[in-house]
Amino acid sequence: MNSWKNTTSVVLGGLSLLLTVTLIGLGVSNQYLQKSLQEELQKNQPTINQGQLSQQFGTAIIRDMAAASVNNSKMKDVLAKHGITVNFTPNSNTNSGR
């Protein structure tokens, strides 16, 4: 019975050692993958920033087109064709008489 306990202890110790080595290997692999993903994200960051800048320009252009469409029915038709409706409300904050 004593040899059965010794054999079990050796097998469980070896299994623990194997699991420890596996865990260390997975940790190193995870660090490599994180570093690789971080480098790829940094490489693509200028493209992401350029897209945000393009969106800001696009928004400004649409805003200017909407302002111009108040006096230009063709511009209003172009915006409507692309699903943009323009509702003009006169500015009530004018300083008339001052």
Account of the 3D structure:
By secondary structure, the chain is an all-alpha fold. It has a domain at 53-87. The chain has two helices and no strands. The longest helix is centred in the middle third of the chain and has 67 residues, at 2-68. The radius of gyration is 34 Å and the shape is rod-shaped. The termini are far apart. 0% of the residues are buried.
Brief sketch in words of this structure:
The protein is mostly helical and 98 residues long. It is built from two helices and no strands.
Q: What is the total tally of β strands?
A: 0
Note the total helix count.
Answer: 2
Order of helices and strands: HH
Low-confidence stretches at least 5 residues in length (pLDDT < 50)?
none
Main sheet properties: none
Radius of gyration: 34 Å
Please bin the fraction of helical residues: over 70%
| Alpha carbon gap, first and last residue | 107 Å
The best one-word shape is rod-shaped
Rounded average pLDDT: 86
Which SSEs are present, and which pair or pack?
Layout: H1 2-68, H2 73-81
List keywords for this structure.
single chain, 98 residues, mainly alpha, 2 helices
